[in-house]
Amino acid sequence: MDDFVIRALLAGGGIALLAGPLGSFVVWRRMAYFGDTLAHSALLGVTLGFLLGVNPMVGVMAVCVTLALALVALQRRRTLAADTLLGILSHGSLSLGLVALAFLETLRVDLMAYLFGDILSVTDGDLMAIYGGGAVALTGLALLWRRLLAVTVDEDLARVEGMPVDALRLAFMLLIALVIAIAMKIVGILLITSLLIIPAAAARRFARTPEGMAALASILGVVAVVAGLLASLNWDLPGGPSVVVAAAALFLLGSLVPLRR
Fold this sequence. Notes:
Elements: H1 3-28, H2 32-52, H3 56-77, H4 82-102, H5 111-116, H6 124-153, H7 155-160, H8 165-187, H9 192-204, H10 210-235, H11 239-256
Helix pairs in contact: 1-6, 1-8, 1-9, 1-10, 2-3, 2-4, 2-8, 2-9, 3-4, 3-8, 6-8, 9-10, 9-11, 10-11
């Protein structure tokens, strides 16, 4: 195979392995809309990166972290419902990113590549960022796994037992922000949440333990990446959307399989 195909497979596989466990928590905690909010804010991070002359990934991380902190602070005030806050932050940050991008008149930006990804253009540097950042995210998730499970099952009980619920929620948000930053080039800003949610949702039907669901979600994500890339290469389709379509097809096929009670 050509080098760019091997790099695409390695990049997509790395993201899928990382998205499985994190996506499982997103599904359990019903945080899909929060993932969309962070993904939409990534465009503002890319624009700030260009304006400040730094790597766009650094700008994305900075904006996502700021948004997560702002969301935690606003939720404590309890003046608006969580979905209302997420809607304001999501559309506001996306629109602000587009407006800021209009001021970069001397810079030509491939907006479609950032919105929908360009997995076939992954470089060796991107692979290092994906696997380095992925190792950090998985290590952090492994350290927090049991406590995050406890908070997910019963947040009030976890608080009574002395667990730092707000700190754990913020740490999980930061892990999602890191994944969005490193996955942006693979499936794009608008499709990142799909890769987090769809494999985890497909795995939920067959898994009997939280760890089993996380592992199966990673496996299904890797299968979706391989199938999507094969479809992209054979039929000249966009890479990122093809991966998401393959993941959705796996979910539909899984939903047709009869399960024993």
